[in-house]
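Appendix C reproduces, verbatim, an entry submitted by the partner laboratory led by Prof. M.T., so that reviewers can inspect both the input and the predicted structure.
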Amino acid sequence: MTETAPRPTLEAVAERAGVSRATVSRVVNGGDGVREPLVERVRRAVEELGYVPNQAARSLVTRRHDAIAVVVAEPESRVFADPFFALQLRGISKELTAHDNQLVLLLTEGRDDHARVGRYLAGGHVDGALVFSLHLDDPLPGLIQGAGIPTVFGGRPGWNGGTGSDVVYVDSDNRGGAREAVRHLVGLGRTRVAHITGALDQTSAVDRLEGFRDVLGDTDPGLVVEGDFTPGGGERAMRELLERCPDIDAVFAANDLTATGALRVLRERGRRVPEDVAVIGFDDMLPIAEQTDPPLTTIRQDIEEMGRLMARLLLGGAGEASSGVILPTTLVRRASA
């Protein structure tokens, strides 16, 4: 058997550096009031001994855990199947890692999970929370407010308990992007433009529907069908649209996954894209948008940057901010429209 070398202690670092234990503690935990020559001696001793601070003890001193909860208000099956969440989580992870913070992922399958997440956040395990994909009747904003921790939301406020002016959030220009998409279709000479919405209990879907209406005004209600941001929802909605309005010549889908479902149905029904029906999506998620048949014209939002900015706002002191940030969108033209 091999014996494990004892873990270096705070006292061992103090002895090596020739300073008091209290001085080492202040340096290791980021405290002030230590002269720079002593700081350098402590840091050198830490490196030589391979000292690793005890996180539990450090948290008692600093009241920080260097951990951020990322709460996604969706079931596991949705989160791991939709590239949107992977992109946003990648942006968050990059920013947290750059600041030596740990990401703690929390998902919600149902109402019981909401209570569990609320208890965890109120339990003092993390320094803050990043929350996205909320639904209009979601109790999470209220639970998080009750936990009393700094929070940044992904998406425009509008959900239950999240309408206050002090809510800090990051979103894309969903309404403006939708307007640009529909103007593009109209500019192509399309006169029967339909819209497959996202889940209308989410503000992003509502904003994109409003952008559609901004351009087309009081359009035929039959040209709008609710989807759910999934390929299956896009298929169902596209079939319904073709039954209701077989003469449609353009479709604005609420996201790229919805557009992939719509394209499949159009192909099954023998409708040529874009000759018979032009299709445009929203997100510009690669490689999805480039690998559809034909490649998808879409509205680009920088999903990864949204995640990074959420984390940046939180780490920079979201409690001091008083409003949200809206990121711009751009039209990316490919072959489908």
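Residues 55-62 have pLDDT under 50 and may be disordered. Additional entries are available on request from the coordinating office.
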